[in-house]
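ARCHIVE CARD
CATEGORY: sequence design from structure
SOURCE FIELD: tokenized fold
FIELD CONTENT:
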């Protein structure tokens, strides 16, 4: 049986709080589906990786060549949205990233290999940016990749749909939420 981990991408105030600097109206639609996945993973004792996009205040950051400054470490925007983030159990960790992918310049790949993880279920925001980059790098790291369709979205619905099509064709599988929940049993 393949050991499965849950990667929860950028469930932060910046994207989800109505006053967040990167908030978009569809963002709250992922709250309940992501909570369902976290609950299923916790109930099964699976590894849950909470990923946070965080940047240093007052320093240059390559990502900001393409985006305005955002998710500055220690700010309200960089904090996890209420009800999200690690709860302090031994099966949950935090990965902070400064690029779109949760694998780039972090120890996520090493950590997952050490835990014997062969498959990741990926959820969070935004489908066409950080979810996609993480998915592509998970695939490149030799992991089976699953994205729960209802547990991700974007401020550009057409790009989210195109991205899910690409993920399903080239990197892994895009499945309904209920199927993803069952992968932790």
């Amino acid at each position: 049986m393949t050991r499965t981990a849950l990667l929860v991408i950028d469930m932060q105030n910046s994207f989800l709080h109505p006053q967040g600097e990167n908030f978009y109206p569809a963002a709250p639609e992922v709250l309940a589906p992501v909570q369902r996945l976290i609950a299923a993973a916790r109930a099964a004792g699976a590894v849950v990786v909470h990923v946070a996009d965080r940047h240093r205040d007052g320093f240059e950051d390559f990502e900001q060549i393409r985006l305005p400054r955002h998710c500055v470490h220690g700010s309200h925007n960089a904090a996890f949205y209420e009800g999200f983030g690690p709860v302090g159990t031994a099966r949950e960790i935090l990965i902070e990233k400064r690029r779109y992918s949760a694998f780039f310049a972090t120890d996520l790949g090493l950590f997952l290999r050490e835990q014997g993880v062969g498959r990741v279920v990926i959820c969070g925001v935004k489908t066409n940016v950080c979810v996609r980059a993480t998915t592509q790098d998970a695939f490149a790291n030799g992991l089976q990749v699953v994205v729960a369709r209802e547990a991700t979205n974007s401020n550009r619905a057409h790009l989210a749909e195109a991205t899910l099509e690409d993920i399903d064709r080239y990197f892994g599988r895009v499945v309904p939420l209920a199927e993803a929940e069952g992968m932790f049993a």
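CARD ANNOTATION: The longest strand covers residues 144-153. The domain at 3-184 is CATH 3.40.50.850 (Rossmann fold).
SHELF: design records, drawer C
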